[in-house]
Amino acid sequence: MVTLSVNGVEQTVPVSVQASLLTVLRNDLCLNSPKYGCGLGECGACTVLVDGVAARSCVIPAAHAGGRAVTTLEGLGSAGRLHPVQQAFIDEQAAQCGYCLSGMIVMTAALLARNPDPTDEEIRRELSGNLCRCGTHLEILKAVKRAAHVMRSASEASS
């Protein structure tokens, strides 16, 4: 058994030694945003935040996530109040098939938490490990820039 804090909710689930965090999130907790892509931590489809850091859930043993804060796309925002990154990806129509989208959004949220004003090169470098086969790369770049602008404006307004 392992107790996981996922999207702010603590849940205890039985896990085998071989179970990845991705498997537990999808199969046991019914969170479908992290996707199985390569199973090797190379494509980014399974990206989640672990203690605020972007991580590939397909290569993290679920037992090692106990006691850590895990955030999936579902935990970034809600249907009534989207996270600025989620809204920016919608506004810029930065998806086609959508398979990579969860990982891209989570990775972007992690980037903007560390660097609120990234350059195009910094965005490209940060997202380079998240594979998109549909070719929405320009729209994704625009979405990241839009989210950064919105988040900076909100931060300045609250200061």
Task: Report on this structure.
It is globular and about 45 Å long. The model has no long low-confidence stretch (mean pLDDT 94). Helix 3 packs across helix 6. The termini are far apart. Helices cover 40% and strands 13% of the residues. It contains 6 helices and 5 strands, in the order E-E-H-E-E-E-H-H-H-H-H. The longest helix has 22 residues, at 137-158. By secondary structure, the chain is α+β, with helices and mostly antiparallel strands.
Termini gap = 44 Å
Classified by CATH, the class of the largest domain is: Alpha Beta
Please give the number of β-strands: 5
By secondary-structure content and strand pairing, the structural class works out as alpha+beta
For the biggest sheet, the summary is: 5 strands, mixed
Instruction: Name the shape in a single word.
Output: globular
- Helicity, as a percent range: 40-55%
Q: What name does the CATH topology of the largest domain carry?
A: Ubiquitin-like (UB roll)
Q: Name the CATH architecture of the largest domain.
A: Roll
Beta-strand percentage range: 5-15%
Count the domains: 2
**Unreliable stretches covering 5 or more consecutive residues:** none
How are helices and strands ordered from N to C?
EEHEEEHHHHH
Q: What's the average pLDDT?
A: 94
**Distinct helical segment count:** 6
Cα gyration radius (Å): 15 Å
Keywords for this entry:
159 residues; Ubiquitin-like (UB roll); DNA polymerase, domain 1; 2 domains; five-stranded mixed beta sheet; 6 helices; 5 strands; 13% strand; globular
